[in-house]
Amino acid sequence: MNLREIAQTIAAAGGRLYLVGGGVRDQIRGHSAKDLDFCVTGLSTEQFWTHFPNAFLAGRAFPVFRLPVDGHVAEFALARTEHKISVGHRGFQINASEGVTIEQDLERRDLTINALALDVLTNEVIDPFGGQNDIHNRVVRAVSDAFAEDPLRVYRAARFAATLDFHIEPRTTALMRSLRDELYALSAERVFEEVKKALGSARPSVFFMALKTAGVLDVHFGEIASLVGVLQPEKYHPEGDAFEHTMQVLDASARLTERVEVRFAALVHDVGKGVTPREKWPSHHGHEALGVPLARRLCQRLKLPSKWTEAATFATAEHMKMHILHRMKPVKVVDLLMAAQRNPLGVEGLAVVGMSDDRGRNSPNAPSPNAASLDALWRVIQAVNGAAVTTDAIGKQFGEELRKKRAAAVQAWRNREK
Ligand SMILES: Nc1ccn([C@@H]2O[C@H](COP(=O)(O)OP(=O)(O)OP(=O)(O)O)[C@@H](O)[C@H]2O)c(=O)n1
């Protein structure tokens, strides 16, 4: 069945079919939508099933059906109202009877830009809360105080600000602030889904800045919040405190790679600066080693995949080497790059963190000679394989011989580059 046939069947049974949520938002923005969600008014669960016997009832808490449309499976939820009656994201009283209107269904939603519906048969846009206007003005705005019924919406609002490059209006920021205590109860998996989407945006800093403005950054990102107000040497860091630097590094990384776990590694690389004793400021000697357990703690709190944790802790431990690579002993360069290659960050990820670190100082186009030479150095090292070991060494000794041959190749490359 195609969508029009489904809409006509629903209309003939006395109901109405609407496209809702992100699909309408993206269409109005002139973007193609990823997944399409539909809302059905005027039909009960039994009536829907009578007309679409092959629909699969997917929801347990409320009626939502899956149905193939033009070869793709789409979701059809019956219009419903929701009222919070107890804690947790399942503690809602739900009414999904056929009398619920599309306007009532939109009212339970988080943001005006998501509280839009498109009548599939007439193409009429239902916009009771000014969502089109907010899309036009690039504003993230809560539909109502019912925003506070789901604390995940704090992260959703910050995430939409980042992915759409919108700004959050003050009343919504105040609602986000009011949900502070409830954020602790969110599952790490749900928070991580939002973080991942935010990291995928062109300017992920917007997400963290929005949380900071709402006074909730420390709930899940305490190690990042601790960087606020931390002084750094002005000569190297004209941008300001360690938090500002981190935000600039994060955005620089987003311009260099699509890999979100590398962007996350860039986010955490300096967390050690948050625990430098104040009397040592603006120096942060040893912040790499201090940062490793902090980076790990942050990853554990968010229950990140182990690859993310390994990449983040590696970047934290090793990022300073990117600034002294040219004067490191060749054998140390070999060790660093081999370790980077074994790590999920990879040599290319390490280069991104190094380059971003150079650019996160009010200099988005700063050259990074060390990071730039990494690629050439890595090719030089890789070109030396086991065949280069001419002695009959085995095991550990073989490895040591290979390491020395590679170090010699690094030295030879340096001599040629001089
Ligand atoms: N905590 C939530 C989650 C979702 N929604 C509503 O449910 C719709 C669908 O949610 P979802 O698929 O998670 O998000 P989208 O808005 O479609 O955006 P994206 O696909 O980018 O996540 C949203 O548009 C919004 O109207 C909500 O009000 N509150």
Fold and architecture overview:
The structure is a single chain. With 418 residues, the protein is α+β, with helices and mostly antiparallel strands. The chain has helices at 3-12, 22-28, 45-51, 102-107, 131-137, 152-164, 170-178, 180-183, 188-199, 205-213, 217-225, 242-256, 260-268, 287-301, 306-318, 330-342, 346-359, 369-383, 395-417; strands spanning 16-20, 37-41, 56-57, 64-69, 72-78, 81-84, 92-95, 117-119, 125-126, 139-140, 167-168. It has a seven-stranded mixed β-sheet with strand order 3-4-5-2-1-8-9. The longest helix has 23 residues, at 395-417. The radius of gyration is 27 Å and the shape is elongated. The relative contact order is 0.06.
Strand-pairing-aware structural class: alpha+beta
* Bound ligands: cytidine-5'-triphosphate
Distance between the termini: 69 Å
Kindly provide the name of the CATH class of the domain at 1-133: Alpha Beta
- What's the overall average pLDDT, rounded? 93
Helix proportion: 40-55%
Uncertain segments of ≥5 residues (pLDDT<50)? none
- How many E-type strands? 11
CATH topology of the domain at 1-133: Beta Polymerase, domain 2
Rg, rounded, reads 27 Å
Describe the sheet with the most strands: 7 strands, mixed
Question: Major sheet: order of its strands?
Answer: 3-4-5-2-1-8-9
User: What is the ordering of alpha helices and beta strands?
Assistant: HEHEHEEEEEHEEHEHEHHHHHHHHHHHHH
Q: Tell me which CATH architecture of the domain at 1-133 applies here.
A: 2-Layer Sandwich
The outline comes out as elongated
As a percent range, the share of strand residues is 5-15%
Cofactor: Mg(2+)
Domain HD: 242-340
Pfam families: HD (PF01966), PolyA_pol (PF01743), PolyA_pol_RNAbd (PF12627)
Family: Belongs to the tRNA nucleotidyltransferase/poly(A) polymerase family.
